[in-house]
Design goal:
- By secondary structure, this protein is mainly alpha-helical.
- The chain has 4 helices and no strands.
- The N and C termini lie far apart (61 Å).
- The model has no long low-confidence stretch (mean pLDDT 90).
């Protein structure tokens, strides 16, 4: 199993750490390290974007649910205003 295959199973902290290391090596590493970083960076960035989108969607859903609960808790006369 390659490192790219393991990316979806990584926890967020490990993923962010690996992304930071890959970016650093892409800039300052030896030629072989730069090549390896270039190979893995797209997969890492894609996974980070996917997770960020999921977190934003979950936060929006929580806010929406909280607004719904708050509206349901208001008296009927306050809801018409």
């Amino acid at each position: 199993m390659s490192l790219i295959d393991k990316i979806p199973a990584m926890d967020d902290a490990a993923l962010v750490n690996l992304l930071a290391n890959a970016r650093r090596l892409a800039e300052t590493g030896a030629a072989s390290q730069q090549a390896q970083a270039a190979e893995i960076l797209p997969a890492l960035e894609e996974q980070v974007a996917i997770r960020k989108a999921r977190k934003l969607e979950a936060a929006a859903a929580r806010r929406s649910a909280a607004r719904g609960r708050a509206a349901a808790a208001k008296p009927a006369s306050a809801q018409r205003a």
